[in-house]
Specification:
There is one protein chain. The protein is mostly beta strands and 387 residues long. It folds into 2 domains: 163 residues, Quinohemoprotein amine dehydrogenase alpha subunit, domain 2 (Lipocalin), CATH 2.40.128; 216 residues, Sandwich (Jelly Rolls). It has 2 helices and 28 strands. The strands form 6 sheets. The protein has an 8-stranded antiparallel barrel with strand order 5-6-7-8-9-10-11-12. Strands 14, 16, 17, 19, 22, 25, 26 and 28 form an 8-stranded antiparallel β-sheet that branches. Strands 15-18-27-20-21 form a 5-stranded antiparallel β-sheet, with no helix packed on it. The longest helix is centred in the N-terminal third of the chain and has 7 residues. It starts with a strand and ends in a 5-residue tail after the last strand.
């Protein structure tokens, strides 16, 4: 279990070692709203998605109850697929009906057995509460479980799958917006070398693809025109790659003017990483200004679910020597939640195709990261930087 600054960090599918013991310690902590709950409360609604690739993986929300009627509270879970029928789940139990209260959180490994996700462990809650036997099973979009300390705490938990649809998904272009991709053609896009793209148009979306399975050269998609200050909207979803880890798990990105990357990757369930000073340091997770500024929150949805990015960008102003006299400024709303607010960016981000501030640059570049990330509903409003 990871606890940082009184917040329990969400589960990570990106950790190098994702095998958790069946017997897991639990510590009573005070936390604020957990990611899955925060997502429901702020900018997302629950929907039923038939095309979700793994019905065990995902966000789960419900409640726990004591059999004797003596208590209960909210219960949430984030379940991450690890491949080969293995899963890792982070369960959070809240004492009482409010989401901000005393709570505890524990990690459990699970497996797919006869088409059902099965999880079990023993949880030591200290001398007062004792050791609990805890079991749960996921089937038919329900998570049902039991817990007991074989004394005075015996109860059940009932959770439902929460397929979350951010308010920004499906957003119609604002007045004055230019539609850059409407799902029908790539007339406004090209590649860096001008060669035909292998990216695929399918069902109104645009999927990253290469000419062949052994193609090693990344061919980013490049907007044909330049853009200055802008408000950009796009939607994306990452592929289901349960056995992949880190940047191999649905990697792509959006380069503003080819210089500043907003990272796209499957960060569902990723814990917040911090440096020795206690500052957030996971600057390669979804929504990060890549290798420059981590998101203030991880609100990533599971792979296969559409997500939204709304980006407000004011470009840097170079001086006579081509250095930034005034830094670029970036604000990002990910799945309806602000994760960067007027972040000053003093230089192009690591790996950006355009490194200097004076050369002509494309308005946008969509990254070919080698995985089948999909995009749709891309539009932009040009802004007056003076306002």
């Amino acid at each position: 279990m990871m606890v940082q600054n009184d917040r329990v960090c969400p589960l990570s599918p990106h950790d190098q070692d994702l095998t958790m013991p069946r017997r897991a310690p639990v510590e009573l902590v005070r936390v604020f709203i957990a990611l899955s709950v925060a997502a429901i409360a702020g900018g997302m609604t629950a929907v039923f998605a038939e095309d979700v690739p793994d019905r065990v993986q995902g966000n789960w929300v419900g409640e726990w109850k004591l059999d004797n009627g003596g208590g209960g509270g909210k219960q949430t879970a984030q379940v991450v697929a690890l491949g080969k029928g293995e899963y890792q789940a982070a369960f959070t139990a809240y004492d009482g009906s409010e989401m901000q209260s005393e709570t505890f959180r524990f990690l459990i490994s699970g497996s797919l057995v006869d088409g059902k996700g099965q999880f079990s462990t023993q949880i030591n809650l200290g001398d007062k509460l004792g050791t609990f036997d805890w079991k749960a099973e996921i089937a038919k979009d329900m998570l049902l479980g039991t817990f007991t300390n074989r004394k005075n705490y015996i109860g059940t938990l009932t959770l439902k799958r929460a397929d979350l649809k951010p308010d920004g998904v499906g957003a119609k272009p604002l007045d004055g917006a230019e539609v850059l991709f409407d799902g029908k053609n790539l007339d406004r896009w090209t590649t860096a070398d001008g060669k035909p793209t292998a990216w695929k148009l399918m069902d109104g979306a645009l999927q990253v693809a290469r000419a062949s399975d052994d193609e090693k050269t990344a061919r980013h998609l490049v907007l044909r025109e330049s853009l200055g200050s802008m408000q950009l909207h796009l939607e994306y979803r990452t592929p289901y790659l349960p056995e992949a880890r880190g940047q191999e798990r649905g990697n792509s990105g959006v380069f503003l003017q080819g210089r500043y990357e907003i990272q796209i990757v499957d960060s569902f369930g990723q814990p917040r990483e911090r440096n020795n000073f206690g500052d957030l340091s996971d600057d390669d997770s979804a929504g990060a200004i890549f290798k420059y500024a981590p998101p203030t929150e991880n609100v990533t949805l599971p792979p296969g679910e559409w997500q939204s990015l709304d980006i407000t960008f004011i470009p840097a102003v170079p001086d006579a020597k081509g250095k930034a006299e005034k830094s670029a400024e970036i604000s990002v709303v990910h799945n309806g939640k602000p994760i960067h607010e007027r972040q000053k960016v003093h230089k192009p981000t690591d790996g950006a195709p355009v490194r200097d501030l004076t050369s002509k640059s494309p308005g946008l570049i969509l990254e070919d990261g080698g995985q089948a990330v999909e995009f749709r509903n891309i539009w932009v409003v040009r802004l007056d930087p003076a306002k």
